[in-house]
Design brief:
Blueprint lengths: L8 E4 L4 H14 L4 E5 L6 H6 L2 E3 L5 H11 L3 E4 L5 H6 L1 H21 L4 E3 L2 E2 L23 H20 L3 E2 L1 E3 L1 E3 L12 H12 L1 E4 L6 E6 H13 L11 E2 L3 E4 H11 L4 E4 L4 H6 L8 H7 L7 H17 L4
Parallel strand pairs: 1-2, 1-4, 2-3, 4-5, 5-7, 6-8, 8-12, 9-11, 10-14
Antiparallel strand pairs: 11-13
Amino acid sequence: MSKSDMTKILVTGACGQIGSELTLALRRRYGNDNVVAAGHKTQPSKALRESGPFEFIDVTRRETIEEVVDKYDVDTIYHLAAILSAIGEQKPQLAWNVNMNGLYNVLEVARERGMVRVFCPSSIAAFGPETPRDNTPQETVLRPRTMYGVTKVAGELLGNYYFSRFGLDVRGVRYPGIISSETLPGGGTTDYAVEIFYEAIKHKRYTCFVREDTVLPMMYMPDCIKAAIDLMEADLSRLKHHADFNLAAMSFSAGELAAEIKKHIPEFTCEYEPDFRQEIADSWPRSIDDSAAREEWGWEPDYDLAAMTADMLDKLGKRYAEGGI
């Protein structure tokens, strides 16, 4: 499969952390008018609004998806609309409704219209306390303790079911924590790894909500976007897995991240006051075996901790100097 197979793309959750940057990357790659951004309540950024079509949809209301899909003759969906882990624990019923019923609606609309393919990301939240935490294998125990994790496991199974039962080409990756220089975090357990950069630049100090020795898999946004596009453009005949690829880039502790920032901002200090998110973090892996993604579609990240930290501080520092953050 190549990018020429996908002519009209819909991105749900386009105002979110990943969606806002992925949409712009897709527009650069496929053409502005060929990528429809869709959000629920959040107003789109100026870049999203002015670079291509934008529509409001509610993924829990199937008719709103159908209206947009039919209006633009959509053949490919990047389905990113979701309630994340921390908010999901505060509002588990909402997380189930959005994450599961929303995905089901997207898959049904895609199946009925014979779409080319659907991308629906999973997460390391699909793992749980019984999962091996170091070099977590592709095939492993999936017993999460959060509603977000439960919906991600179910979503993987549903995506694989639609592929085997209906022939719908559903693809997905288990994203680690995502770090972005462009958008603020959206209520996840790994938000500290983004917040720390803003606080380091603005106030030279940060109070972290996980322990100093908490190690989690992370990924810089450019690699996150590259992974989604590379997987969607991969030749289907090479794929043995579909909706559940392990994905890795780097793993580090909160303390290691603070130390890396301190190399650039010597006066920076970090304190640690774990809250309810610590228990969630403790149920997740420390490192990921993503050999299946590397073998089946050539996955390879571009950023490690040092390269990401330097780039984040450079971009955010410039914006701060201009009054942008």
